[in-house]
Amino acid sequence: MNKARRFWADLMHDYDWYRIRRLVPEEDTNNKIRSGRGLSVAFHIEQDLVDAMLLFTSSNNITMFSLSLACYYAFLYKLIKDDDLCVTGVVANRSKEEMKNMIGMFVNLVPYRIKIEPNNSFNQFVQKVQQLCTDVLEHASLPYQQIIEIQGKREHHELPSSSFQYESLVSTLTQNTSTELVVSEDCVLDALNDRDTTHGNGTTLFDLTLIVSHDYYARTTKCFLDCSTDIFKSQANVALLANRFKYILRQLFCSSIVGEPIYNQCSISISNLSLILPEEIEEIQNVIFHRLPTIENEAPASYAQARIWLDERIRFDPDKPQVAIYNMPFQYRLFPEQTLSIKRLVHALQLVVL
């Protein structure tokens, strides 16, 4: 236990616990109580992305847990622009052989803290996350309450803003069949399903939770994104967030987006990733600014316009070669005894802009 205490003390040293509950950095939620209400969206990862991720894990001796967590870190970094991230995860906490077949709850909550160097390649970052996961698993026996106490935080309810969970499913050929045993008219026993059915029940403990459910037999991956209504106000916002996460994956593992060969596609740095969807980029590029019908075609020239016209005359007058005055600041000065009232401010803006 002393070794575990030293590990957690080093890992969480100098961490700003006052921002651990702020998904949005500029939002002051230190003393805010979460409502517990949430919105959820479920989505499948495209098969070509799943195949590329599995190829990456096998080629680099990386677990799908570490790779998925690294992708989540990259997504959070682009979302909140914070390079010191702490994500909560759960571990089975059955490290001893004699505990594996015991009935009972041994699950422990552990913080995964990592500092992101955005200019490094994603490949290097995944290796760093893999080492973090190995170290956390080795020292996961220390209860979360004691991890908090090491940092001098006596409030045991202190939880990070975001959470990550990975579900490894091993399906069978008969996974889609339904087996029921009718005991009586009012009692029906159903077969045990290895899938968690609690997703999307309208509640969430964290501001943002990503659950990755990977089926090794079917080679499919399904994700669940649970978002607190304290921050994400509508289902459309949650669905848009899921699309942005999928686009992050496509930039990392699809060579047609990154423009790199498949063996070198994860050399892209996290700073070069983008949350802006392709359709949003196209919409921005197609924006055309039109003159509003309420604006008159003729109006008195402003001071700024007069200066620009004068500059045009100076630049193209061969008899008066002078330096152009583009990009020079227009100043509106006040006398020492004067104050800038709203009326004077409007007048100054009219001189420069209108």
TrEMBL record:
InterPro entries according to UniProt: CAT-like_dom_sf, Condensation_dom
Which GO BP terms apply? amino acid activation for nonribosomal peptide biosynthetic process; secondary metabolite biosynthetic process
Q: Which organism is it from?
A: Adineta steineri
Domain Condensation positions: 2-252
Its GO CC terms are: cytoplasm
Q: Gene3D superfamilies annotated for this entry?
A: Chloramphenicol acetyltransferase-like domain, Nonribosomal peptide synthetase, condensation domain
Q: What is this protein called?
A: Condensation domain-containing protein
Which positions carry the signal peptide feature in this UniProt record?
none
Q: Which GO terms describe its molecular function?
A: catalytic activity; phosphopantetheine binding
Please indicate which superkingdom the organism of origin belongs to: Eukaryota
